[in-house]
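Why this split exists: single-chain examples teach little about how molecules sit against one another. For that reason, every record in the complexes split bundles all components of an assembly together and asks for one structure covering all of them. Below is a record exactly as it appears in the raw files.
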Amino acid sequence: MTYSDLNTPLRTIMTPGPVEVDPRVLRAMSTPVVGQFDPAFTKIMNEVMEMLRHIFQTKNKWAFPVDGTSRSGMEALLCSIIEPGDKILVPIFGRFGYLLTEICERHGAEVHTMECTWGDVFDPADVIKEIKRVHPKIVALVHGETSTGRLQPLEKIGAACREMNVLFTVDGVASIGGTDLKVDEWFIDGLVGGTQKCLSVPSGMAPITYNERIEEIITARKKVERGISTAEDRKQELERDHPIIRSNYLDLSMLQDYWSSRRLNHHTEATTMLYALREGLRIVLEEGLENRFNRHKFHENALVSGLEAMGLTLFGSPSCKLPTVTCVNIPEGVDGESVRQMLLQEFGIEIASSFGPLQGKIWRIGTMGYSCRKENILFTLGALEAVLIRHGVRVHTGRALQAALDSYSLIHREPVGQ
Amino acid sequence: MTYSDLNTPLRTIMTPGPVEVDPRVLRAMSTPVVGQFDPAFTKIMNEVMEMLRHIFQTKNKWAFPVDGTSRSGMEALLCSIIEPGDKILVPIFGRFGYLLTEICERHGAEVHTMECTWGDVFDPADVIKEIKRVHPKIVALVHGETSTGRLQPLEKIGAACREMNVLFTVDGVASIGGTDLKVDEWFIDGLVGGTQKCLSVPSGMAPITYNERIEEIITARKKVERGISTAEDRKQELERDHPIIRSNYLDLSMLQDYWSSRRLNHHTEATTMLYALREGLRIVLEEGLENRFNRHKFHENALVSGLEAMGLTLFGSPSCKLPTVTCVNIPEGVDGESVRQMLLQEFGIEIASSFGPLQGKIWRIGTMGYSCRKENILFTLGALEAVLIRHGVRVHTGRALQAALDSYSLIHREPVGQ
């Protein structure tokens, strides 16, 4: 039986993830592996923890990746703190709010939801009012909602949660590394990031962080695996009066032991993905968080100018736009999927559609991480204009690229890092 | 803030995993990524499914990786079929049997165990007797137990399970790609493999397969996520009379939809790890399963000859030795960890210790995948002799390498593939 060598096309990936991987990260991934308890490897584990603390803007002790895609991190965080019957409030403003409810329900929580129109975010005061009414143990909220391209302000909600002794857990998958996210300053107790979006590392890891408030709950539910537990571990278990965490793979108390100096074997850390994450984080830290956030906005501005100059309109409320995702209303009568297909087939450019009620209504263009580059923005605008013309859309021809170039020339020098 | 470039030593990795990654796999991992719904990528997904069916020796429709380390695959399989209160029989002959009990307990099963001495395996007749007594819904069993280096015969147990309408799920993490494992012929209903052992792909994916018997249970528990479900999905859910699967991330009914032609978005597939798995499987198929199994035995023989010629004794019953892991009794009075450390520090060779009751009693030397090469065996034997001499052990000096070379020269030509 023979299979051909891996032959993949080179794409311009302008979706909200997975996006183009930084070539430095790809190179790091071809590094020969070392064993999981090799001092050379545990040093890398510690470095990644330190780097993650900077990216998350936190002093938390615990900051490490879960070995799975982003939602594995979200489930690890939630299932480790949810005890059956716990009340959770999930304010929903897009698809990934629903995902949070799914996870919580499966782990036995009593889920309370509130919803706002897709394309908008919540007024923090409304969420706080609902927290006061429901008295949940946990508030679970999305920061950057990729399905609608919106950014939920978190700080006031975080402060209120802390004051009312409610745990505040945040899905920062689409925002981390692309727009500001201050874990400590915004009173976030537990946060999950993504690799395949603004960090420009392949999908397959979910960096998380959590503070002592969460650690305390996890520790109270701790169980060490029978095959490797000590007499002391088993004694502590007998004194445990909280229910065990409902997953072995996603049990943060065990992951914590593995990432601590105890190095108690849980899984075998995904060596090459960790090499990739380290390199991806290193690139972010070299660029500097503020520079990086500015760069994302800088290119977003050019993209938006181009799209509007072409005559397209943006979806959603401008006041809460997620800088890393731009949602475009599909013009009346146009088959959005046909446009996407032509972009991919003729230009090798990928943009995204959306989910549920927005399917067929909007396109989503990502400007994330390594994909967020001038040539990608310009190429996408030019290609989209051509494809729309082919689809009979009356666009203002020639204006998109001029507007984008104008936007780029408004600032004499591009921000550092790009 | 600056961090240095990734600087890792080149090791000779002779543990039972993670082992050295084939250079072709490392190279594939530096390939630029494409989007998750790009036809170029879904083609790769389909190819990997086809390749996995060959490796698993099955005609099952479902064969795909779970995006997580091996135990995530085991938990995905078990949590998707366990309904609270289900009886499960777990015969335990090492650490990873305990892991199976942990996973099952956390998902609400009523777990029945039977144990045999570590270093031995079960007489299938004894397991069958216990199945008849307990009447479980599921038997969960380890095939290759790396903690003790034993290989459990499965066929008779599988046949008995099928006859009694019991589900038979197997942990083939340490055996797949290194020793024979016939999913269909041995009546295995669900099986989980590992990447970082005999497939010589980095840790981070868990290839699994399961048949219609399991698919039927999964389908009866199916729930499509609210943010992406259709009216038809929601109608079917209302008719569901089985409890929902207790994990979102590890829910095989959702993974199945993502790996099917429906391509219903669940997670974002770990692109680069899938490239790696594809290349790793391609290498196995090029070598041929039988050649590959023979090669593993061929090098195991040389290693064992060398160890015994040195005067060391092997742990465990020879009749059920796992060909890919050789367990060596640590000589009386020797600090096993000190020997391991010196091997690593002076020679750059990593061998493993073991867990629980065997900690400090045995070393475990893996001969898996790309690590299973003549130069690695010879280097390890020579180094171990030197280190043992340094530790004051009276070994038969000079004999180990001669015995290994003799073993190699007994066969005129090495098997194809190495």
